[in-house]
Structure formats: C-alpha cells, structure tokens
Write a structure and sequence with these properties.
TIM Barrel; two-stranded antiparallel ribbon; binds coproporphyrinogen III
C-alpha cells in the first residue's frame, strides 16, 4: 500500500502535491469545537475526556481534509504528569504552581506519570483506529513541548513577558537548571514513547519560546535537549519521523537542520523562503510557514502568500503549514478556501 503523503514527504519521497495541516487546527475558531468545549467543562477536562478529545481532533479533518491529524492535547500535561499543579483560568490561560528547584517536584516515577496521563494514550489509540476506518490517507501526529518551553511555564507559573525567573535560573545557575532539563528530557522521551506505542506515526516537539534565548543558550537549552529526545526516540523507533519547531531562532536554525536527528523543521514566518530552500531543505523536510494572520486576512493576500511558499519549496520535501497556531478570530471560510487550494493536486 502507498504510504500516507505526510509520511512520504517526511521520508523525502515523491508526493503528488505537498501535504498540509495547520497548527491548532482544532480550536475555538470552529463553532463545532466551541460546542464540545462548552459541554466538557474546562480545557483540561476536554483533553482528558477520551470521547470528546477524539471528536475535536477529527473535526478539522471532516471540515477541511488535512493530511494529518494532531492529537488534541496540550504541552502542559507533562508538568501535570510530573505531579505539578496545572490549571487553566477561563479567558486567561495556563496557571501552574511555580517551581524554583527540581526538588519542588516529586521524585521521577515513570509509571506514575504514564498512569496519570493514560487517557491521552487512549485518545491516541482511538484516533489511530478511527483514522484507519474513516480518514485513510491521514497521518496521526503526536506531540510534546520541548523542555525549554515547558520549563518556562513550570518556573514562571504562566505565560510570561520577560521570562525573568526562568532565564535568571538558566543563565545564573546552569548546573541546577540542567537537573530540571534532564528531568524533562527523560519525561518527554517516556511520554512520546507511550504516544508512539499507542499509534502516533509522527511526533513534533514544540519549542515556542526558543527565540527568547540568546544564540549560545538556544543551542544549550533548546537544541541540545530536543536532540537528546530525538536521538533516544530514533533508537527505539527508527521509522517514526520527528519534527522540531524552534520558533524565532533565525539563522541559528541551520544548526538544528544539520543535527541529523530531525526529519523536518517547522519554520516560523521570519525565516526567509529562499534561505530555507537553500540552507535547510538539503538537510530536512520543511514545514511552514504562513503567518496565521494571513488566514485571518483571507482572500488574495492569503492565497498569494501561500503560493509563494509553494513556489519556493515544492521542488523539495515540504509540508504546508502555518508559522504558529490558528487564532480564535480566524474565519472558517478562510481556512476552507486555503484548504481547497492546498488539496488541488
Ligand atoms: O494543534 C492542535 O490542534 C493540537 C492541539 C494543541 C493545543 N496546544 C491545544 C490548545 C497543541 C499542539 C498545543 C501546544 C501548546 N500549548 C503550545 C506550543 C505551540 C504554541 O502554540 O506555541 C503552547 C505554548 C501551549 C500552552 C498553552 N495552551 C497556552 C499558552 C494556552 C492558552 C492560550 C490560548 O490559546 O488559549 C493553551 C490553551 C490551548 N491549547 C487551547 C487549545 C485548543 C485553547 C483552550 C480553550 O479551548 O480554551
């Protein structure tokens, strides 16, 4: 049987048209998501409700026919699995009881974490079966936050403007900060391994806040931990492609491309199209990089920008995506128009 288009692109094989999916393709811009969300209670209740999490993962596939489904969950379930208190304030965002030392966390207990997060693996298994039944060519992507981005939330206790506590820790006391990062590397390997065992065909690491670090520390606290995770997963699951998303790291992304353990890089819209084709695509499949605000804008601006990405990259391995997640005010009609363009062979 012909392999799914997304997997073919990640293996640098020929595809008839570039596969596509959108970060945050399930979410508040869809009325059918808001309906399920309203029934579920809080956002984390939705993530841990197997029936409902499966349903919202499939909603965008039904509406727009993407080539990939991404597990509906959140990067902050790993701190939850490690025993940290995590909740979402309605209309505001994530809150965590902040930690200041790795000793503020329980001793690492892999089976306790896997146990706490077991509904998520059930969601993956259910999705894997449902896709096989109803969305045959669609690949299932699992994900986790990268250690740096997850650490920013664990230490700051919320979305941050200046990252002052976590950066002072990372810059000022790298040895003890390294212990936290080692814990997160280990937990993330275990968490992603469980997703793969449950049926995830691809995994993506999200380092949304990599670009808040200076160049040397991007390598130390963003790239190196992601590479450790990728190398360990590659040993266990050599057939599972890994996508890295280190947001806003500029030309430093070349180092990530040359590490050899990532099959694709997800690129933000500050990365130039020609630069990416010339410097990155020889090493990795490219994923990205339409500004989600283009999808809010819609019309010829959106289609023109999408065309430029396709023209620049489609002679090599690529996956069409956005530079960051779709946002709530995005008109559904714009996502539909873009998807129809992308489904055209
Ligand atoms: O892409 C997808 O469709 C899969 C689901 C997904 C979510 N979060 C669902 C979500 C993924 C891959 C994430 C990753 C995530 N979560 C990241 C990395 C990617 C990025 O966006 O930079 C980060 C930093 C988080 C942390 C997070 N989760 C924040 C800061 C917030 C609040 C902001 C917001 O948009 O409300 C969330 C909540 C969240 N995660 C929502 C969704 C659909 C909104 C929850 C709701 O319905 O109220």
């Amino acid at each position: 049987m012909e392999e799914k288009a997304l997997l073919r692109a990640l293996r640098r094989q020929h595809v008839d048209r570039p596969p596509f999916w959108f970060m945050r393709q399930a979410g508040r811009y869809m009325p059918e998501y808001r309906a399920v969300r309203a029934d579920a209670g809080g956002f984390l209740d939705l993530c841990f409700n197997v029936e409902k999490a499966v349903e919202v993962t499939k909603q965008p596939l039904r509406a727009f026919g993407m080539d990939a489904a991404i597990l509906f969950s959140d990067i902050l379930v790993v701190p939850l699995g490690l025993g940290q208190k995590v909740w979402f304030e309605e209309g505001e965002g994530p809150r965590l009881e902040p930690i200041r030392s790795v000793d503020d966390l329980e001793a690492y207990d892999r089976s306790a974490m896997i146990q706490r997060l077991s509904p998520i693996f059930d969601v993956v298994t259910r999705l894997s079966n449902d896709l096989e039944q109803d969305f045959k060519g669609t690949a299932l992507i699992g994900f986790a936050g990268a250690p740096w981005t997850v650490a920013t939330y664990m230490v700051e206790g919320r979305s941050s403007r200046n990252y002052e506590t976590v950066k002072q820790w990372a810059y000022g006391d790298p040895k003890s900060f390294g212990r936290l990062m080692d814990r997160l590397v280990e937990a993330t390997i275990d968490y992603l391994s469980a997703q793969i065992e449950a049926g995830a065909e691809v995994v993506q690491l999200f380092d949304s806040w990599a670009g808040t670090l200076d160049e040397a520390h991007q390598e130390r606290w963003s790239f190196a931990p992601m590479a450790e995770i990728a190398q360990s997963l590659k040993q266990r699951y050599p057939h599972v492609p890994i996508i890295a998303f280190a947001r806003q790291v500029g030309t430093n992304t070349v180092k990530l491309a040359k590490m050899g353990c990532f099959d694709a890089l997800s690129l933000d819209h500050t990365v130039g199209l020609d630069f990416a084709r010339e410097q990155l695509q020889p090493h990795v499949c490219l994923q990205g990089n339409l500004d989600p605000l283009m999808v809010v804008t819609g019309g010829d601006a959106m289609l023109g920008a999408a065309e430029q990405i396709l023209e620049a990259w489609s002679d090599g391995p690529m996956i069409f995506n956005l530079s960051h997640g779709l946002i709530p005010p995005t008109p559904v009609a714009h996502v539909d128009l873009l998807s129809r363009r992308l489904r055209r062979a």
